[in-house]
Design brief:
Radius of gyration: 16 Å
Distance between the termini: 30 Å
CATH topology: TIM Barrel
Number of domains: 1
Number of strands: 3
CATH superfamily: Metal-dependent hydrolases
Strand order of the largest sheet: 1-2-3
Length: 147
Protein backbone atom coordinates (compact mmCIF):
# COMPACT_ATOMS: atom_id res chain seq x y z
CA UNK A 1 0.00 0.00 0.00
CA UNK A 2 1.26 3.45 -0.73
CA UNK A 3 1.92 4.90 1.71
CA UNK A 4 2.14 1.83 3.91
CA UNK A 5 0.39 1.88 7.27
CA UNK A 6 3.47 1.49 9.42
CA UNK A 7 2.28 2.17 12.94
CA UNK A 8 -0.80 1.52 15.07
CA UNK A 9 -1.29 5.30 15.09
CA UNK A 10 -1.53 5.25 11.26
CA UNK A 11 -4.23 2.59 11.43
CA UNK A 12 -6.10 4.45 14.18
CA UNK A 13 -6.01 7.67 12.14
CA UNK A 14 -7.52 5.93 9.10
CA UNK A 15 -10.28 4.40 11.23
CA UNK A 16 -11.03 7.74 12.89
CA UNK A 17 -11.13 9.49 9.52
CA UNK A 18 -13.65 6.95 8.22
CA UNK A 19 -15.80 7.23 11.33
CA UNK A 20 -15.84 11.03 11.48
CA UNK A 21 -16.30 11.60 7.74
CA UNK A 22 -12.86 13.06 7.02
CA UNK A 23 -12.37 10.09 4.69
CA UNK A 24 -15.54 9.63 2.67
CA UNK A 25 -14.95 6.43 0.73
CA UNK A 26 -13.22 3.08 0.75
CA UNK A 27 -11.60 1.82 -2.43
CA UNK A 28 -8.86 -0.56 -3.47
CA UNK A 29 -6.75 -0.53 -6.57
CA UNK A 30 -6.16 -4.28 -6.10
CA UNK A 31 -2.45 -4.73 -6.82
CA UNK A 32 -2.09 -8.51 -7.12
CA UNK A 33 1.69 -8.76 -7.41
CA UNK A 34 3.38 -12.13 -7.66
CA UNK A 35 5.23 -13.35 -4.57
CA UNK A 36 8.56 -12.84 -6.35
CA UNK A 37 7.82 -9.10 -6.56
CA UNK A 38 7.05 -8.92 -2.84
CA UNK A 39 9.47 -11.28 -1.09
CA UNK A 40 12.47 -9.01 -1.56
CA UNK A 41 13.97 -6.04 0.29
CA UNK A 42 11.12 -3.75 1.41
CA UNK A 43 12.38 -0.67 -0.46
CA UNK A 44 12.57 -2.64 -3.73
CA UNK A 45 9.28 -4.52 -3.42
CA UNK A 46 6.33 -3.59 -5.60
CA UNK A 47 3.80 -1.60 -3.60
CA UNK A 48 0.27 -2.78 -3.04
CA UNK A 49 -1.64 -5.87 -1.97
CA UNK A 50 -4.45 -8.02 -3.27
CA UNK A 51 -7.14 -5.97 -1.60
CA UNK A 52 -10.34 -6.41 -3.55
CA UNK A 53 -11.41 -9.69 -1.94
CA UNK A 54 -10.79 -8.55 1.63
CA UNK A 55 -11.76 -4.87 1.66
CA UNK A 56 -15.39 -5.43 2.64
CA UNK A 57 -14.66 -8.01 5.34
CA UNK A 58 -11.87 -5.87 6.79
CA UNK A 59 -14.26 -2.91 7.02
CA UNK A 60 -16.99 -4.98 8.67
CA UNK A 61 -14.46 -6.47 11.10
CA UNK A 62 -12.62 -3.28 12.00
CA UNK A 63 -15.20 -0.49 11.86
CA UNK A 64 -18.19 -0.22 14.14
CA UNK A 65 -20.57 0.98 11.45
CA UNK A 66 -23.85 -0.26 10.03
CA UNK A 67 -24.63 -1.58 6.55
CA UNK A 68 -25.91 1.83 5.37
CA UNK A 69 -22.60 3.47 6.31
CA UNK A 70 -20.65 0.75 4.51
CA UNK A 71 -22.84 1.22 1.42
CA UNK A 72 -22.04 4.94 1.45
CA UNK A 73 -18.31 4.33 1.91
CA UNK A 74 -18.00 1.61 -0.74
CA UNK A 75 -20.63 2.69 -3.28
CA UNK A 76 -22.63 5.90 -2.90
CA UNK A 77 -19.72 8.24 -2.19
CA UNK A 78 -17.27 6.78 -4.74
CA UNK A 79 -19.93 7.03 -7.48
CA UNK A 80 -20.59 10.66 -6.51
CA UNK A 81 -16.89 11.51 -6.36
CA UNK A 82 -16.07 10.15 -9.82
CA UNK A 83 -19.34 11.37 -11.29
CA UNK A 84 -20.93 8.14 -12.44
CA UNK A 85 -24.47 6.84 -12.10
CA UNK A 86 -24.77 4.24 -9.42
CA UNK A 87 -24.41 3.74 -5.75
CA UNK A 88 -28.17 3.83 -5.27
CA UNK A 89 -31.08 1.47 -5.71
CA UNK A 90 -33.51 3.43 -7.85
CA UNK A 91 -35.55 2.77 -10.95
CA UNK A 92 -33.43 3.64 -13.97
CA UNK A 93 -30.13 3.41 -12.07
CA UNK A 94 -27.63 0.67 -12.90
CA UNK A 95 -28.57 -2.53 -11.05
CA UNK A 96 -25.12 -2.97 -9.50
CA UNK A 97 -25.72 -4.53 -6.11
CA UNK A 98 -23.66 -6.39 -3.53
CA UNK A 99 -25.43 -8.67 -1.07
CA UNK A 100 -23.54 -9.64 2.07
CA UNK A 101 -23.92 -11.62 5.24
CA UNK A 102 -22.66 -9.16 7.84
CA UNK A 103 -22.53 -11.82 10.58
CA UNK A 104 -20.68 -14.58 8.72
CA UNK A 105 -17.21 -15.27 10.11
CA UNK A 106 -14.30 -16.92 8.31
CA UNK A 107 -10.54 -17.25 8.48
CA UNK A 108 -8.77 -15.94 5.37
CA UNK A 109 -6.73 -18.69 3.74
CA UNK A 110 -4.44 -18.20 0.77
CA UNK A 111 -6.02 -21.09 -1.11
CA UNK A 112 -9.44 -19.41 -0.89
CA UNK A 113 -8.29 -16.21 -2.62
CA UNK A 114 -9.65 -16.19 -6.17
CA UNK A 115 -7.22 -13.57 -7.50
CA UNK A 116 -4.01 -14.78 -9.10
CA UNK A 117 -2.16 -12.47 -6.72
CA UNK A 118 -2.25 -13.91 -3.22
CA UNK A 119 -0.24 -11.15 -1.56
CA UNK A 120 -2.03 -9.91 1.53
CA UNK A 121 -0.93 -9.45 5.12
CA UNK A 122 -4.32 -10.74 6.28
CA UNK A 123 -3.81 -14.48 5.68
CA UNK A 124 -4.85 -16.26 8.86
CA UNK A 125 -7.00 -13.39 10.14
CA UNK A 126 -10.51 -14.14 11.32
CA UNK A 127 -12.84 -11.76 9.50
CA UNK A 128 -16.54 -10.97 9.67
CA UNK A 129 -18.77 -10.09 6.74
CA UNK A 130 -18.98 -12.18 3.57
CA UNK A 131 -20.16 -11.05 0.14
CA UNK A 132 -22.67 -13.69 -0.97
CA UNK A 133 -23.86 -12.23 -4.27
CA UNK A 134 -22.79 -9.58 -6.73
CA UNK A 135 -25.14 -8.21 -9.38
CA UNK A 136 -23.74 -6.11 -12.22
CA UNK A 137 -26.11 -4.34 -14.60
CA UNK A 138 -28.92 -6.57 -13.34
CA UNK A 139 -27.03 -9.83 -13.95
CA UNK A 140 -25.76 -12.09 -11.16
CA UNK A 141 -22.00 -12.39 -11.68
CA UNK A 142 -21.13 -13.91 -8.30
CA UNK A 143 -23.31 -16.31 -6.36
CA UNK A 144 -21.25 -17.63 -3.48
CA UNK A 145 -18.78 -19.01 -5.97
CA UNK A 146 -21.40 -20.70 -8.17
CA UNK A 147 -21.77 -17.95 -10.82
Amino acid sequence: MTPPLLTPDDVAAIKQGLLDGTIDCIATDHAPHHKDEKHIEFSLAASGISGFETAFSLAVTNLTVDADTLARLFSVNPARIIGVKGGVILEGAPADITIADMDAVYTLREEDIVSRGKNTPFIGWTLRGVVTHTIVDGRIVYDGGAA
